[in-house]
Amino acid sequence: MPGNGFDGPMLSCRGLRRSYGQRLAVDGVGFDIARGETYGLLGPNGAGKTTTISMVCGLLARDAGEVTVAGRPMCPEATDAKAAIGLVPQDVALYDNLSATENLHFFGRLQGLQGKDLDRRVAEVLHIVGLADRADEHIDTYSGGMKRRANIAVGLVHRPELLVLDEPTVGVDPQSRNAILESVEALGAEGLSVLYTTHYMEEAERLCDRVGIIDEGRLVAEGTRRQLVAQVGAGDRIDVSGTGDLDALAATCADLPGTRGVDRRDGGVVVRVADGPASLAAIVDAAGRVGVAIAGIELVEPDLEDVFLELTGKALRD
Amino acid sequence: MPNPVAVTQFRAARLIAAVDLRRRFRNRSFLIQAIGGPLALATIISLAFGSGGGIDATIGVADADGSPLASQFVEGVTQADTGDLRFERVEGPDDARAQVDDGDLDAAVVIPAGFAATLSGDEPGAVEVITEPDSPIAAEVARSVAGGFTARVNAARLAAATTVAGGGALPPDDELASLELPVEISQSGTGGDVPPAAYFGPAMALLFLFLLVGALARDLLAEQRLRVLDRVRAAPVRDTAILAGKAASVVAIAVVTLGVIWAVTGVALGADWGDPLGVALLIVAVSLTIAAVSGLVAALARTENSADALATFVAFVFALIGGNFVPPGALPEALRRLSLFTPNGWALQGFAELSVGGGTAPDVITHVAVLLAWAAVCGAVAAVVLPRRVGSKQ
After folding, report:
1. Distance between A317 CA and the closest CA of chain B, angstroms
2. Residues B111, B65: contact at Cβ < 8 Å?
3. Which residues of B touch A110 (CB under 8 A)?
4. B331 and B231 together in one domain
5. Does residue A208 form part of some domain?
6. Are the beta carbons of B234 and A85 separated by less than 8 Å?
């Protein structure tokens, strides 16, 4: 519960390991989340994100490792540690022939809320997710976006200290997706600790203070975006579009100092370099030498997609 | 002082059961399956069997022989107290045939002229039975009555032949024709004056409840697939409390279904299920069994569809063997014994013991104990396997 005197990390995971038969789904994952921090677990489908949060939330027994939530040990039988977590599963995990209010009352009561406190809190979260005016309608009458918002509301109803969201925007239309991201940003700004799993790089960049990159069950790197970029030395990217002998331009750029790689693309060349501003003039000069007329040139700083590519050798959506 | 964790888990189980019940009783198709279906089927079958559980038919008896033996037979059957099964004397074979054709009689038995003389002859006599296709049960009764009579006559012929073979003298024909061959006709149905709804009410309720087992198991697996179960398990609730809550809701559904059908068949169809305490004990015991079987199906099924298929298989096998469609009394002995390998069989024989046999609660203690044993065994297997399927040990 808030203010229980524990001033360590809100969530601490150490050496989490879990197998399904012969398949090792999570292998030695460990990370901490500070109070008020939004931590993103970024990885492609099947990377082990859901298995990790299932162990974090006490849904799944661990083969090895430890989890503490605000200092309280988590296991499937834990009650104190579970009470501190609000889980928002990837699917709309609600009873669809009950209303949003009825779902919130049920899950709120399971968490120990009752009476006027429960009524008040249900009204609050309905307001937070913008469903107050449709609160008494059955979930199966809601649009997809409304269902997702109701799904988040249930995770918030008992005032958790740590909100765990498992890919909450998968299959959601852009408008609803934006509304969900704004809600998570607002909750983070209010000081709620958040564990957010996603395979969308832009969501992790937008929402998360720190990101853990997970692939094939292992946490391969973690830190702020800047730290991750620096850690892997992903470098910059220069996108050149133009007309002329683009193959010759690609070959010339590959020999320039500071070039890490060159990709020939339709109507242009992508050059990965250690220092973008330093390489820019040399690339323009090379284009002139091989007779390419530049239509556009763009310096792009590395993002988490590039970091993931550097670390794993594959794209996030592979 | 109560253990606070136990109190919390009990409260959680109660909440889970309550929300399950609320969801199900809002579902129209569930209500049809749990209440409407068994009531409708019990009513239809009960009406088909008639209000007294016996045969409602009129059978004509014609004496073309005119012998004392034939007169004795006609007098015997027409004076027998057979409830709704009536025997009427008719003038002769032609009259009998005409009345059966017109539908005034459902069947007729005719003692032909010269029948008594066959007692001393070489050829056995034949009694004619006139039937019509619309009354197959009356036809069977008429054949049975005629068969019974000719069997007695043939026994008398055999005695006469034995006497002759032993060197004795055959009595004169008029003496033979005056032999007293008593006629006994009794009717047995599902239980004398007990309306068949007292049997088919619980029988149909159990059939539909076992069919519902599939829906209940499927719901649990769907909750797992949609991760609603994960959300419940993410609360401070243990797997045992979740399973207890789910089981409690199934028990409540079965108790409500059987209770409603008990009340409605009593009020609307005049069915007396017997000693209320015995009925209540059986209802609770069989409801616990249904909940345990539901858990077992959920534990064994790999998918929601396989839960449905498995439950349907179990429901029909139990129903066919257990006597949901035919009272155990009407089953051959071997099948009647086989019915005791099913919970339906024990439950229905318990209900029949109370309604037909006029038993009281102590008379169904064995039935209740066997049902509780079924519940314990199925429940134990489900309790071990289900957490591996839907709980933290998966």
Report:
1. 24
2. yes
3. 12, 15-16, 232, 235-237
4. yes
5. yes
6. yes
Assembly ipTM: 0.80
Whether residues A248 and A220 fall in one domain: no
Q: Mind listing the pLDDT tens digit for each residue in B63-107?
A: 888 888 788 888 888 877 666 778 889 988 889 989 988 888 888
Cα(A83)–Cα(A57) distance, integer angstroms: 10
- Separation between Cα atoms, residue B384 and residue A200, nearest integer Å: 40
Distances in Å between the alpha carbon of A198 and those of A16, A65, A166? Answer: 19, 23, 7
Q: Which residues of B151-186 are buried (b: 16+ CB within 10 A; e: fewer)?
A: ebbeebbeebeeeeeeeeeeeeeeebbebeeebebe
Q: How far is B17 from chain A (nearest CA, A)?
A: 11
How does DSSP classify residue A114? -
A54, A76, A95: residue with CB nearest B228: A95
Q: Which domain holds residue B103?
A: 57-176
- C-alpha to C-alpha distance for A156 and A262, rounded to whole angstroms: 47
Asked if A95 is an interface residue toward chain B (Cβ–Cβ < 8 A), one would say yes
Cα distances (Å, whole numbers) of residue A159 to A2, A37, A93, A129, B384:
9, 16, 18, 14, 34
Q: Is the pTM of this model over 0.90?
A: no
Which of 241-280 (A) contact B at CB < 8 A?
Answer: none
3-state helix, strand, coil in chain B (%, to 5): 70, 5, 25
Q: Is the CB of A311 inside 8 Å of chain B's CB atoms?
A: no
Q: Which of A212, A230, A248 corresponds to the end of one domain?
A: A230
Q: Is B6 exposed, middle or buried (0-12, 13-18, 19+ CB in 10 A)?
A: exposed
What is the three-class DSSP state of B209? helix
What is the number of domains present in chain B? 2
Chain A nearest-CA distance from B215, in A, is: 16
Specify if B183 maps to a domain: no
Q: Please state whether A111 falls in left (phi above 0), alpha (psi between -120 and 50) or beta.
A: alpha
Size of interface A-B (CB pairs under 8 A): 77
pLDDT tens profile A13-51: 999 999 988 889 999 999 999 999 999 999 888 889 999
Q: Which residues of A touch B22 (CB under 8 A)?
A: 98, 102
CATH at residue B123: 3.40.1710.10
Give the pair of three-digit tokens for residue A245: 């002998």
